[in-house]
Amino acid sequence: MPRHHQKKSSVPGGGSQRQLRVGEQVRHAMAEILAQGNVHDADLEGHIITVPEVRMSPDLKLATVYVMPLGGRDTEIVIAALERNKKFLRGEVARRVNLKFAPDIRFRVDERFDEAERIEKLLRTPAVQKDLDKDPDKDLEQNPASDREEKQ
Q1: Quick one: pLDDT band at residue 8, thresholds 50, 70, 90?
Q2: For residues 51 and 65, is the Cβ–Cβ distance under 8 A?
């Protein structure tokens, strides 16, 4: 039996309390840097970029920064521009967040907005609307015997 066991995360959302706390600090720092316009890149100048989440590796040496340009436009261009300026951004984050090592940064497009829209569309379909329009109290009145069977 191996001596080293991977410690399972007891925190929902993935990661230890420290990972979550540091990720939130890095997220605030990154959002502040981007909002102030400190990155001088022609591809970033016309975009407002949202930083909804930063996930830290267990050793805190890698930060995965999820970004979304306002309106979801030009995501590939924005990611490429952020990748080009990764060294500068890493230095700025290191100045603002007190860590032993400045985390390496990688950028990903945040897909949660697309997923939320997909779920919204599903909820608006006629089949789901039909189920949502049903009155649960009427169903119980029509079939009270089945309700008693479930309670027993």
Answers
A1: very low
A2: yes
Residues 6+ apart with CB under 8 A from 85: 39, 41, 44
Residue carrying the six token digits 């924005």: 78
Query: Which tops the pLDDT comparison, 148 or 105?
Result: 105
CA angle 95, 27, 77 (to 5 degrees): 100
Q: Which two tokens stand for residue 9?
A: 């995360």
What are the residues whose beta carbons fall under 8 Å from the beta carbon of 70, sequence distance 6 or more?
47, 48, 49, 50
Question: In this structure, what are the phi and psi dihedrals at residue 50, rounded to the nearest 5 degrees?
Answer: -95, 140
Question: Quick one: pLDDT at residue 10?
Answer: 43
Q: Is the pLDDT of residue 58 over 50?
A: yes
